[in-house]
Amino acid sequence: MISPDDFDEVTVNGVRDYDAYFATPTHDDHVLFELLVVGILQVGLSWQVAASQLPILRQQMAGLRIDAVAAMDEPDFERLMRTPKVMHNGCKLRAIIQDARAIQRLQAEYGHFSTYLWAFVDDTPFMMPAPDDDEGLPTRSPLGTRVAKDLHRHGFTFVGPVVTHMFLLAAGLIKLN
């Protein structure tokens, strides 16, 4: 359990972890799941606030291991909702659990979650024009919309076109040039 005195340091580490992964192409299912978790949590918040949840969620959700999260049941969910420092948004927490189960199904079908995802870009990051400095990151793409629809078809929740686009960008499947 993280003590309140340690939370500020842990929060910074979660942001550092996410920042280190962001836009680096990865084929690691665990890293992909953590990036998806940040995307789910980010809805309505900054990425820094969402990423700051990684350390506490790792601690409270069995290291964010896909199989362990997928096995979580209602008592586990209720415990999370009572745990200090965990973002108490039931829809987002349920989506994390549901999406871990959906990843398991994709792993059974494709061998790896990454194999499924990278097939959308023929194993080569999709190059998107970089925005002007004052425009910020694009929040949507046709690829993100297409992948979001397919994720929904496979039972994922909380992965609309914006969340999915940002997830693909974070995971390095979309690169800005």
Automatic annotation (TrEMBL):
Which keywords are on file for this protein? Membrane, Transmembrane, Transmembrane helix
- Which GO molecular function annotation, any one, does this entry have? DNA-3-methyladenine glycosylase activity
- GO biological process terms, semicolon-separated: base-excision repair
Q: Carries keyword Membrane?
A: yes
Write down what this protein is called.
Dna-3-methyladenine glycosylase i
TM annotation in the entry: 31-51, 155-174
**Does the entry feature the keyword Cell cycle, yes or no?**
no
